[in-house]
Amino acid sequence: KPLVVFCHHRDVLDTMYDTLDANGPHAATISGSTSSKERDRIITAFQAGKIPVLICNTIAAKEGITLTAADTVLFIEREWVPSWEEQAEDRIHRIGQESNVHAVYLSCMGTVDEHFDRVVESKRRVVKAVLDGAETEEGRATLVTELLSRLKNEGGWKTTEVNV
Fold first, then answer.
1. How far is Cα 10 from Cα 16, in angstroms, rounded to an integer?
2. What does pTM read for this prediction?
3. Cα angle 90, 61, 4; round to 5
């Protein structure tokens, strides 16, 4: 099956493309500088099985495209915003997808990547707890109480009386 690779930095995208194109399977890229016409051509070729590896800038390709020819997405750089990664994963996992989708996040041990992974995953858990609710009613109440307490204690709490 074809593979979709997401990265953040343009130099990483270019280096990966140059390496793959020179030494391995044919690859294509989608970045912020890819024209909409070229982007459509690349996606059509990828979906038709003519491009085995598609390397995308996460921000440029996280929305508005379908890449269901693949069942695996590889992130070689993390994003600060967990929902951007989830949106990028969703390019592979679409309605009607018949195979399981696998998302792989690469991280180098002993580097700042390990810390970055923990920060991003912590943010993902907080956002999920706020949007979806915590696992238990007690957890939700604790989260709401903590948010309100911090807001009040940090001077961000303001009440306004409105006469109707």
1. 10
2. 0.71
3. 65
Phi, psi for residue 68 in degrees, rounded to 5: -70, -5
- Model pLDDT for residues 112-143, shown as the tens digit of each residue: 777 777 887 787 787 777 777 655 444 445 65
Instruction: Give dist(CA 68, CA 54) in Å, integer.
Output: 12
Contact 69, 1 (CB under 8 A): yes
What torsion do the CA atoms of 94, 95, 101, 107 make, to the nearest 10 degrees? Answer: 30
What is the band of 90 on the pLDDT scale with cuts at 50, 70, 90? confident
DSSP secondary structure of 98-112? -S--EEEE---TTSH
Residues 6 or more apart whose CB falls under 8 angstroms from that of 145 comprise none
Question: Pairing between strand 27-30 and 102-105?
Answer: unpaired
